[in-house]
Amino acid sequence: MGMEITRAQYEQIVHCLPIQRGNVSLSNLSVLNAILYVAEHGCKWRGLPKRFGNWHTIYTRMNRWSKSGVLDRVFEQLQQAQIVRIKIEVVSLDSTIVKVHPDGTGALKKTARNPSANPEADGPPRFIWLPRMLERQ
To answer: Most buried of 2, 18, 70, 121, CB within 10 angstroms?
Structure first.
């Protein structure tokens, strides 16, 4: 199971999370465990196991929590309660997601084959979570 938190552990930090209203398909506990899975395994959101639910729903909620400061409060509380002993320090996005018109780059026309046509040549994905263990057991 890895770094998933239990219902009892969740109850210690539930005050940090928004109250769920209406017809929601995923509980905050499920979303939090999915976020911890991505942090632990460094996988892409699309690589989340199906048991967590729809990856896009999880990503959307994580993004909203991140922008509103919820994730900062949750991770701080998880650390204070010594439930999870990691700290996410850096998130790096692949720069190839930024689209620039060829005229905007000022580069000469390429005559060589585009390396992106061969995914194996590009190496590992560049969307990286870098969790750091705060202490070793």
So the answer is: 70
